[in-house]
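B., you asked whether I could sanity-check this one before it goes into the benchmark set. Here's the sequence:
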Amino acid sequence: MRSVVATAIAVVALITPAATAAGTNAGALPRIQPRSLHYLGSFRLPSPQSDQKTFDYGGTALAYDPTRNALFVVGHDWYQLTAEVSIAVPKRPQGQRINKLHRARYVQPFTDATDGEIDQAGSSTNKIGGQLVLHGRLYGSVYVYYDASDSQVVSHWFRPTTSLEQGRAKGLFKVGRQGTGFVSGFMAAIPKPWQAQLGGEAITGNCCIPIISRTSFGPAAFAFDPTRLGQTAITKDHALVYYSQQHSTLGAWDASWNPRKHILFAGGTSIRGVVFPNGTRSVLYFGTQGIGKFCYGEGTSNPALNRKPTPDGTIWCYDPADSSKGTHAYPYVPEVWAYDASDLKKVKDGHRRPWQIRPYATWRLHLPFSSPNIGGAAYDPAHNLIYVSQQYVDGAAPVIDLFKIP
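And here's what the prediction gave me:
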């Protein structure tokens, strides 16, 4: 498998001087722009093993495993099981023909990567927010999906190796003091030239989850050292960027997306992954943006019902993509939020506050299939590849889209 993938990616010359020679002046490194992301192709995930062991309604918390050249991916939303899959040769689809894509295989079958520790979060609605391979270990985070009392305290876990069968997961552990809803999601490794400047080997954050007052109103990043989890009661972190309810710089929860008015966050925003590519000073967040008018109520595909009262006392929100009760901002598009690490350093050094930082750019991510739903993102530093999970493409399952940074 490794030789097949290596042959495929060698054709496009994935390793570049910018990716391998970061230099000593990290602040002088280039920033990634929309044209910097080159789509290479997509592949399908393996077929279901059972009703519970499936990628249907999943495809979240991606993590790249360099030892196996593979991806950890969380499956069905109800069960929160993790599997590791191979990286199939990416292929550009013709139209929406999913069946022409190559399919990955299981490297490690579905299992509870937390070994039951996920239950420590204190709810039956716990989700794995992010995963990260670092120093030969698999790290992860957990958040309570609907934490109305904001009572979650602990969030992070790790396995002693990247094996899902050997050893036992440890956790959950508390990270920082700002509130679990800010740190319990996506994670990414920090490139070495930036680690001392930002205060850790990795970043962790969360955004846009229900009960918005407990989390960030936009992208969040806290630098920490995952290897220190469990060594003290609270693992120290450094706030780099976040937006509290009191400092909703990018937009209010009930706002409507409007970049001309500098509104980059609203109730229709979700962010599911972050990567920090080598040889750059860019931190990239991947998610889905509702670009329509904000509405809170019951989703409906009938435009004639829009904003009219429902039998239960709420209102109808025209949203043919989502019939649930909650926030709506149809239509939706996949989006990237790009931050300059030099700005994050200003926060670490005390020259700026975390909510005073804004992305230097946001843009629509052009994906090969029509679904705007992003489940997660992961980064391969050796080949400068970004993997993005595009949900609800292969029936109820996602596909993995590959992008290269020159």
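One thing to flag: The longest strand covers residues 385-394. Otherwise nothing jumped out at me.
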